[in-house]
Amino acid sequence: MLGWVLFNDKDLWLRFTMSAASSVEKTPYALGGAITDFTAVSPQISEKLFLILRKKFVTDVSGRIDTPTMGAYVPFLRKALETNPYLFIYLKFYAECLILSCSNRDALGDVLRNFLCEDVANEFLPDMLLTNDADQTAEWLGKVIGRDMEFRRSRTKAQISDIISPDSSLAKYTPAQRLYILKCENGSGLNRSFNMSISSEYDFDRTANLGTVKASLIDNGSTVLAEYEISSPDDLIALELFHTVKGELPIKKCRCCNEYFVPTGRSDSEYCSRISLGENKRCAQIGAMRTFKGKYAENPIYAEYNRAYKRNHSRLRNGKLYDEEFRDWSAAARKARDEFIAENKTVEQFRLRLTELEIE
Question: Longest C-alpha distance within the chain, in Å?
Answer without folding.
Answer: 80
